[in-house]
Amino acid sequence: MAPSKTAERDARAARDRLRRYNARQSVHAHKVRRRTRDNLVWSVVAVMVIALAAYSQVLYFTVGPGVPPPAPAETADPDAEGANSEAVPDASLAEARTWTGELTLNDVTLGIEVNGEAAPQAVSSFIQDVGSDYYAGKTCHRLTDGGFFVLQCGSIDGAGTSDPEYTFGPIENAPADGVYPAGTIAMARASGDAFSNGHQFFIVYDDTTIPADAAGGYSVIGTVTSGLDQLIEQIASKGVVDAGSDGAPVVPTTITSVSVE
Questions:
Q1: Is residue 69 over pLDDT 90?
Q2: Cystine design at 104: which of 7, 72, 227, 256 (Cβ 3.0–4.6 Å)?
């Protein structure tokens, strides 16, 4: 007996449903494969970005946040212009207490606190430099804004050169996690050398992670307690010369005065 028209219609409808189902399954499988591929690609990209960021941090901070370049041979003369032949003070100068004061850069006045208990040697050095008027007129020669947010000041020649007659250590009060919050004031030093601290310091104007090197981290001497917004607005936000991310600030920056008590 020939199948009825109703049965034929039902069979065709069933075949159509099966084709549509198979088509949907095929599309779904394709989407799953594409999503898996895209997730894999983005995972690889994310890993590469993280690795590049970490490498950049290590590379930058091994030639470092304020890591001063070696002084040219001719600057080793203690009678050279701008040289400071003062001896590194005893750590007791910091009196194991908190010192408060002001640091003025151009027309921006920052309230500061330095902790003589947490970093006695570095704070003693800073206090001596303030008392001897070393910092007045020195420049902030280095600004970074490419994921690292520091303004570095106090070079003997305004170009990042260290004072060959004045170095000390060890590293004190470096954060164990490598995180330097906005407002941190820390000492610059050479890569891998815990006893290469000197006159130079850097101000962290936005949270920054600085990986430790073979010698450790950087000696945190204190914090900016007020005026950081003005520093960002008037100096840091103007950027680095030649649209770079690490170099001289577009706004020439000079230490007008420093006082602590």
A1: no
A2: 256
